[in-house]
């Protein structure tokens, strides 16, 4: 994504929102199910695994597909 988004930032986004990425023609759709964050139909397993202030890495249960 063209900006860092922590787990808290992602949770504040609207369900159904689509976020652009640096990859051409690849976007990430935001959703939630039973309080769990879903990105492109893939559940987020761990939020904020790494955060150095400029990069944030989240764990997911599968590969994100466009």
Description:
It comes from Cocos nucifera. This is Putative fasciclin-like arabinogalactan protein 20. There is one protein chain. The chain is mainly beta and 66 residues long. The protein has a domain at 7-51. The protein has one helix at 7-12, and strands spanning 18-20, 27-33, 36-39, 42-51, 56-60. A five-stranded antiparallel β-sheet has the order 1-2-3-4-5. A hairpin with a 4-residue loop joins strand 4 (42-51) and strand 5 (56-60). 3% of the residues are buried.
Structure keywords:
mainly beta; 1 helix; 5 strands; single chain; globular; 44% strand; 66 residues
Secondary-structure topology with pairs:
Blueprint: H1 7-12, E1 18-20, E2 27-33, E3 36-39, E4 42-51, E5 56-60
* Spatial strand sequence of the major β-sheet: 1-2-3-4-5
Q: Helix count, per DSSP?
A: 1
Tell me the distance between the termini: 13 Å
Summarize the amount of helix as a percent range: under 10%
Strand residue percentage? 35-45%
Radius of gyration: 11 Å
